[in-house]
């Protein structure tokens, strides 16, 4: 039957064209996503920057620490502590005098500095990053600095913002060429030690083996690694930023791959099955001339193998270019770093995804063809011609079982998330995939819904004059399989985009309006061109009469759990001030019971009020803190509140800056006078006075950006594929109906009436798809409504009507184009659309 399959493809290649297009695009999509994932897992080595000219770098680290298993910005305990005095002494003793250079990295910014990393260093370490003086001299006194050319000129007196001093005045003693990775300010070694006591790393000029012997003998908690070669990049600040960007990529791409891949496989399989169903008459004729069911199945499998191999080969090539386009798209959206590229090569990380996509294309083609071939092969020769001329209901027992099972699982999953695990909706990786289930189930059960929906949709037109409405209604009802197949891409397009867009907007709105985000203070401080607010600036504002201020500083609390050290986010802040300014949903205890030796923790941690917890701060200090209260927190927002004496320690010890501050006025204070005084106090300090509403809006924009990028970029990929699927499926379905067109012409229909009939039928098909999409999305949004109600106490379901109308309109236009193009071509093949004599004979038969 292989020869028959080859001859069939040669003579009926037009019938397989739609299947080939769907398979090529599906394989290309899977290959592109696989390449992106493989690239994330096998990144190229990045060159060293700040230590490119250093023989070796000693960096405090924990060999068992895998940053991929921890939150962004959290460092191991040795890395957070920095180089200990003992390690500094032993490394210095292992080499010659002067062979060890201390490196410190801390927040230091010229007023009005650029948007690159604003960082201060001691001058002696500058040469290892390739810095050389282009003008002036090295800083000789503690009030002199060296900056990049273009930021200031030699001899200028400039303002430098730091965490330790807030605002300081320095004289520029020299300049160095600017670099891409940072805007550096170089101080004397003494001044740098005063501004930042913590030592980040050591540059050693001695033998690396001797230094490794020293670092290997350090006690637990003070371990360090000796970095040489390309490993020196791990000591660069950009290594952490790269990890953050790649973490966003690694989080986004699997979601996109799972949703888009599932959609592609479903559409390709259904398209191939539909192509086989369209040939039921041809297969039935083979049965009448003696072909056995096994031969029919073998022929269709061979056709699927040939089509799948050719289409998958083209798809893998397109997938390689598609992966590069997607990488550029992610870079343009700010998700991936600029150097993230997909390059063609023979490496396993490139070959494996392409080979996997090729195999997926073959398997999907075979599965889609085999399922339909079994139904066609069961036709008896005696009834083959009669059976081939009538479409069936399209619901096999297997499909019915799959649809019912999927419906139960989909509703059950939605209910479980809504009632038992509402926090799942805040996790894009999990929740986006769960949105697929009701939509795919609706597509599987579509043939069952075609009849009732068609009768409902056509009911308003039952009294229209003329036979068009009746013909359209009966045509759809007697061709439910074809209608369901052509409505499926519309269902997927509208259903998935509606669920994704509405979920994104609803969750964002609920976060903005939820009680966890309610701030009772009327004013706040926000960074103004700086990464944060200095403690010195907070102290200046606190000295203004009638003003109370709370400025949480993000830090890390380390706790010992048996033989492991676990880390948790924390905010160091005056708890008494916090009580008046931020409405925490306290579940046990009271914020009023807080003291300098207590902390407030989320109830998710499961620590009872009154318990004393031994905590370890990143600077090495230990404290036994009593839990004075617990509060209800959302996933990702469960931080502990510590006394202000811990501000400046932990993961942000490099800068010790507050990301925001809340300000309230004491009773009797004149708001105009107080705000004017606050404005004078923060002038030129890198902070600005704002209202809490504006502060919350800016924070909401920041926190929602990545989530929106994730879900909307996923929706864009789905839209592009489904739009092509809509056009492709309608072209296949309409092009195969030349006999229906001839029957209409034989009964006296004019070309205009024929076009009107096919157009009305395509609109009914689109309406069926949109209706099913709304029903499936309603299940998703009902579950989301219940989950948000539990999480936030408010559940605004925000439907982006403008976007959804645009998507539905685009789907309708593509469906109309997919209908009118083949109908118009068929009408033009005969003079003025006259019936084809050969088709007349077939129609009469």
Automatic annotation (TrEMBL):
The keyword Transferase does not apply. Coiled coil: none annotated. The chain crosses the membrane at residues 12-41, 252-277, 304-323, 350-372, 401-419, 431-453, 714-735, 755-775, 782-799, 805-827. Keywords: Cell membrane, Membrane, Transmembrane, Transmembrane helix. It is a multi-pass membrane protein. Residues 256-380, 715-828 form the ABC3 transporter permease C-terminal domain. It is found in: Cell membrane. Pfam families: FtsX (PF02687). Its main location: membrane. Belongs to the ABC-4 integral membrane protein family. PANTHER family: ABC TRANSPORTER PERMEASE YTRF (PTHR30572:SF4), MEMBRANE COMPONENT OF TRANSPORTER-RELATED (PTHR30572). This is ABC transporter permease. It comes from Streptomyces niveus (Streptomyces spheroides). The lineage of its organism: Bacteria, Bacillati, Actinomycetota, Actinomycetes, Kitasatosporales.
